[in-house]
Amino acid sequence: MYVYVVSITSVFLCRLYNLSLSVYYQPEEGEEDPFICSAIRENGMLRCHDVPPYSEGGAECSLPAPSLGGEGGARDGCVNWNQYYNVCRPGNVNPHKGAVNFDNIAYAWIAIFQVITLEGWVDIMYYVMDAHSL
After folding, report:
1. CB of 73 within 8 A of CB of 63?
2. Domain coordinates in residue numbering, the chain
3. Counting Cβ atoms within 10 Å, is residue 106 exposed (0-12), middle (13-18) or buried (19+)?
4. I need a surface site. Which of 16, 26, 133, 134 has the fewest CB within 10 A?
5. pLDDT digits (tens, 9 = 90+) for 22-73
């Protein structure tokens, strides 16, 4: 599975503005609704521009990062830091606390069992379609 990670530009922005963004985008809902992106060579459903905007206190942020020589930021808005997640590569965390994966034979058999018994197979199907849809 792929996740969007922070690019070099984003690392620079984090240091410049003293931010603490995670290395990859994680939805606020946690592990129940993972954001699985697709590489350019794949025809998956989610890309860089599909990362939802950053939000603070329930308000959706839309401002860009302030420039170095510019005036102070707007008081009635917030910066959409999620727009700087722009690199898609494999991550270390699999969906549902690592339970849905094909990393070793044991987990692969569990996933196959889920598909055969029709219990939870829809989630697996959607994750594969999100990353590798044709």
Report:
1. yes
2. 2-132
3. exposed
4. 134
5. 655 666 655 566 667 776 677 777 776 677 777 777 788 878 777 665 555 5
Q: What angle do CA 64, 69, 72 make, to 5 degrees?
A: 60
- CB crowding 56-85: b at 16 or more within 10 Å, else e: eeeeeeeeebeeeeeeeeeeeebbbbbbbb
- Which residues are paired to 79 by β-bridges? 63
Nearest Cα to 84, choosing from 65, 59, 57? 65
What is the secondary structure of 81-127 as a DSSP string? GGGGEEEEEE-S--TTTTTS--SSHHHHHHHHHHHHHTSSHHHHHHH
For Cα atoms 47, 26, 10, give the angle at the middle one, nearest 5 degrees: 70
The first and second tokens of residue 62, run together, are 């839309």
Phi, psi of 34 (to 5 degrees): -70, 150
Q: Rounded to two decimals, what is the model's pTM?
A: 0.47
